[in-house]
Design a protein that fits this description.
This protein is of the alpha+beta class. It has three domains: 83 residues, no CATH class; 110 residues, Butyryl-CoA Dehydrogenase, subunit A, domain 2 (Beta Barrel); 130 residues, Butyryl-CoA Dehydrogenase, subunit A, domain 3, CATH 1.20.140.10. It is built from twelve helices and nine strands. The strands form three sheets. Strands 2-3-7-6 form a four-stranded antiparallel β-sheet, with no helix packed on it. The chain has a three-stranded mixed β-sheet with strand order 1-4-5. α8 packs antiparallel against α9, α8 packs parallel to α10 and α10 runs antiparallel to α11. It is globular and about 75 Å long. The model has no long low-confidence stretch (mean pLDDT 90).
Length: 381
């Protein structure tokens, strides 16, 4: 198991650090560091800079913008991006639908979508979850009925992140309602968000943000050539997509940045003759969280070279827990100021960040689902 970087890998890391700090505008990186909500323009600007430097989609095939990097180099690319507070390339584009189209899509779909997807000329959203099909995704009921050269799509999606910005949705639909297993009979369609019959309704969240939506699909006509792969094979593509998503969810770099901010804020918070950082109980909690984060980082580094079965679930499960623990500790540092709704100040943002981070143990497969995968694939239970 590799737990230390080689000389060449250290040189690559330094190259990434220099590029991120030189190319990405400081005001955007400061916004990420301070937890401010970024605009759509900020995210597009960042991804196009990364793409211009040929590092937006290193996990894709080289002919579509990928890089001939080792798994460790890809890990460094991602980790240093988080440490530099660079907005990550839009995950719906880069980690989800892009790799699926590159692997399973027709040549026509690859030529049409991959280049603009990498450059964020197209903004994708994910049409998976439904009101009664969240963690049990295979229970989805949105139907796609073949009508000549088209499918007629009817149903509802929910918790659709950034649907208000999206140009296209990659959508799981049921094309065979009579399939013996609920995982069968599901297909993956690419659906334009401006098509007649598509309605997006925002969902107000407890943290005050509006990042998720309901999407209603009322007899939306989708050309049949926008089917990814084969009809009724969508469950295979969804598992491939979710495996890519979960492996990147440990967010070790983001947690390390949060811990650094916690330490800095605690040092500024007066307590008796010293600061909160001098309090033994607080210092012990912070040290425990730092050690747990280091342990996860070592697991991630050791597992990067070969994604063994269940590893992505370990990273997703533990990474979610550590992100939540860090946001809780930051809110405690804020003290009474965390109760103020003013998100222009760090104390108010700490509560919004804490509330928003509750979702990390749900999306991409809940913690209960991840424990089940770990039990079956690693422990053999």
């Amino acid at each position: 198991m590799q737990l230390a970087l080689t000389g060449d890998e250290i040189g690559f890391r330094n190259q990434m650090r220099t590029l991120y700090r030189r190319e990405i505008p400081l005001e955007i990186r400061d916004g990420v560091r301070e937890g401010r909500e970024l605009s759509r323009a900020d995210l597009v600007t960042t991804q196009r800079i990364l793409n211009a430097n040929h590092i937006a989609v290193p996990n894709w095939p080289q002919q579509w913008g990928g890089r001939d990097w080792t798994p460790i180099q890809r890990h460094i690319w991602h980790d240093e991006m988080q440490l530099a507070c660079v907005p990550e390339p839009l995950t719906f584009n880069v980690d989800m639908i892009g790799p699926v189209i590159a692997r399973y899509g027709s040549e026509q779909l690859k030529a049409r979508f991959l280049a603009p997807t990498a450059n964020l000329d197209i903004w994708w959203c994910q049409g998976f979850s439904e009101p009664e099909a969240g963690s049990d995704l295979a229970a989805l009921r949105t139907t796609a009925i073949r009508d000549g050269d088209s499918y007629i799509v009817t149903g509802q999606k929910i918790w659709t992140s950034a649907a208000q910005y999206a140009d296209w949705m990659f959508c799981l639909v049921r094309t065979d309602s009579g399939a013996a297993k609920k995982q069968a009979g599901i297909s993956l369609l690419l659906l334009p968000m401006d098509a007649p019959g598509v309605t997006v309704r925002p969902i107000a969240l407890v943290d005050g943000s509006g990042e998720v939506n309901e999407v209603f699909l009322d007899q939306v006509r989708v050309p049949a050539d926008l089917l990814v792969g084969q009809e009724n094979q969508g469950w295979t593509y969804a598992k491939f997509l979710l495996g890519n998503e979960r492996f990147g969810m440990a967010a070790v770099g983001r947690t390390k940045v949060r811990l650094s901010m916690i330490k800095a804020r605690a040092r500024q918070t007066r307590m008796g003759a010293g600061s909160l950082l001098d309090d033994p109980l607080f210092a012990a909690r912070l040290a425990e969280l730092e050690n747990d984060t280091l342990a996860l980082e070592l697991i991630q580094l050791g597992a990067t070279a070969a994604k063994s079965g269940g590893t992505s679930s370990i990273l997703k499960l533990r990474g979610s827990e550590l992100q939540q623990a860090a946001t809780e500790l930051m809110m405690e540092v804020a003290g009474p100021g965390a109760l103020l709704p003013d998100v222009t100040r760090w104390a108010g943002r700490s509560t919004a960040d804490y509330l928003n981070c509750r979702k990390t143990s749900i999306y991409g497969g809940s913690s209960e689902v991840q424990r089940g995968i770990i039990a079956s694939t690693i422990l053999g239970l």
